[in-house]
Design brief:
- By secondary structure, the chain is α+β, with helices and mostly antiparallel strands.
- The protein contains three helices and five strands.
- It has a five-stranded mixed sheet with strand order 1-2-5-3-4.
- A hairpin with a 5-residue loop joins strand 3 and strand 4.
- The protein is globular and about 35 Å long.
Length: about 80
């Protein structure tokens, strides 16, 4: 899975990156996505939430500005 960086510490799958408008506003708005924490210190992933892209991105933005999650990166990808 190829990831693209959208914001600081927030990465999305390439398919979402190339069709971001459709996933945020358009025809693919109801497609399910996962948001996962990736610990840069331990090298582990922790599944967090699933929902549409808009909800996952909003939650990732909220967590990325929280000081408790300074050692984490946030990955958003499509349910398979």
């Amino acid at each position: 899975m190829i990831m693209e960086q959208v914001e600081n510490r927030i990465f999305v799958e390439r398919e979402i990156f190339l069709n971001e408008y459709a996933f945020y506003y358009g025809s693919k708005r109801s497609v399910g996505c996962y948001m996962t924490y990736y610990s840069t210190r331990k090298g582990t992933e922790t599944h967090c939430i699933s929902g549409n892209y808009r909800d996952c991105l909003a939650f990732a933005r909220y967590r990325s500005h929280d000081k408790r999650y300074k050692n984490f990166e946030f990955l958003i990808y499509i349910e398979k």
